[in-house]
Structures are given as C-alpha cells and as structure tokens.
Design goal:
Length: 259
Amino acid sequence: MISIGIAGKGGTGKTTVSALVLLTLKRAGKVPLLAVDADPSSNFCEVIGVKTPPSLVSVVDDFKRSLDKLPAGIEKNQFLEYQIRQAISENPDFDVLLMGRTEGPGCYCYANHLLREHLQRLEKNYRFVVIDNEAGLEHLSRRTTRCLDFLLVTTITTRASLSSAEKVLSMVEDKNLDLKIGQTYLVINEMAGKGQDSFGESLGLPCFRLPFDTEILRRSELGIGLLDLPDTSVSLQSIQANLLPLLDSLERANPGKKD
Ligand SMILES: Nc1ncnc2c1ncn2[C@@H]1O[C@H](COP(=O)(O)OP(=O)(O)OP(=O)(O)O)[C@@H](O)[C@H]1O
Ligand SMILES: [Mg+2]
C-alpha cells in the first residue's frame, strides 16, 4: 500500500486534487484504491460524485453504545469489523471511508484502539490510499500510522496561502509530532491566477502547477462529481503528467510494500 495525503490552507484545492489523484490512479489501473475523507467538514464524496457513507466516528459511537448489549457469541472485535464494513462505500475500483470528527490524539479508549488496528489492516488491502485532509496535519497524529509515502501540499498563488503551506511543512519537520513523510510536493493551484514564475520556490520543495480548469469550476457550480471528468480536462492532465511517473518509480522502489 502506498499512501498519498493532500493538505494545505482552506479553499486551495485539497479536495479537488484528492479527487484528481484518485481518478488518475483509477484510470491508470492502479487499483484497488481507498479514498479517505479525513476533513471533518468533508465533501470528498460529493466532489468525486459518489454516495457519502456514514462516518467512522458515528460507527465507533454506535459500537460503544452497543458494547454491553452484544448478543452472546458475538466477539467485540468481529462486531467492530462488521460495523466498519458498513462505513465503507464501495464503488468500482475504489472504496471510500469517511473519518468524521475524531477525538484528540490523547484519547486511547478501547474503541479507538481497536479502530486503529482495524484501519491498519484495512489499508493493507489497497494498492493506494488517497487521504483528503483538513487544513493542518492534526488528523495524522490520530491516524493508525503517522506515515505517508507522499504528501501534496496545495497552495494558491497568494502569500497567505504559501505561508500556510510553510506551516504544514514545519509540522512535517516537527520531531514532537513524529510524522514520517516520504516525499513532499507543492501543488501550485492557478485557480486564482498564475502568480510569478518563481512563486513557491522559497519553500525549497519540488513543485508542479495545477492549471485553472473551467470544467472543474463548472462541475463545482452545478454540483456534478468528477468521476466521469473527460481526459481532456487540463487539471487532470497535469496530475497525470506530474504524479504518475513519481508513483510509478515509488512502486518500483517498493515492490510489494505492505504498510
Ligand atoms: N484548478 C482549478 N480550476 C478551477 N476551479 C478550481 C480549481 N481548483 C479548485 N477549484 C475550485 O475551487 C473551489 C475550492 O476547491 P476545493 O474544495 O478543492 O478546496 P479545499 O482546499 O478542499 O477547500 P476546503 O478547505 O473548504 O476543504 C471548488 O469550487 C473547486 O471546484
Ligand atoms: Mg476540501
């Protein structure tokens, strides 16, 4: 399993990029895929254009409430696994998991502990996991593993947005958070303008640009998902051209990577 996380300031295109990455992998046959919506104010499913499943948080809440009412013979573990399966929306080539609002990193209650174990096992069933994040990286400290093979940090071409990207990077480097991130790329989203040629260079990260895409905007205005976005979409083409070679070489370097 190779995990790809998308982070950045609000409104800079995290969910759009997450959906484009998912589409890119699906159309390249790099399946099965798991799309994880880790943003509590999430709309990943709507942007993809699939049914929104119940959140994991609601599933774990149900699990906690039912613990003392479990029929004899049913193991708690089995029951949670069953509940988690209910929280996964299955689609051709990819599943979707909605995290919901999770508790703080300090909460290691029984249900959350079990949940981490199950998620860790679950993720191993997929070739790629794509995680749409909230603006910061707080969610990562709550995830089963604090590892990401690939982090895409989105920014639009404003100073404020770039400063937020910089903050995400400082979290990546913060030893106390103990995050393990393989490669980090800056995605310069040109939705609000192209900015200067040198924009983003100060961060010292490899970067690529996501062009303004009228088709993305049109679909967003009409509430149409991106699942059947035509291959002529300039933003999809950019993700395909920039990301696929990187992921190909990552897969070649880690054949059979299981965690
Ligand atoms: N390259 C682009 N071209 C045209 N429109 C875009 C582009 N990127 C994003 N958008 C539009 O900008 C809006 C914000 O994008 P998106 O929802 O992906 O950002 P976000 O970072 O996930 O926001 P939030 O912080 O609210 O989760 C959406 O309406 C989306 O369709
Ligand atoms: Mg979003």
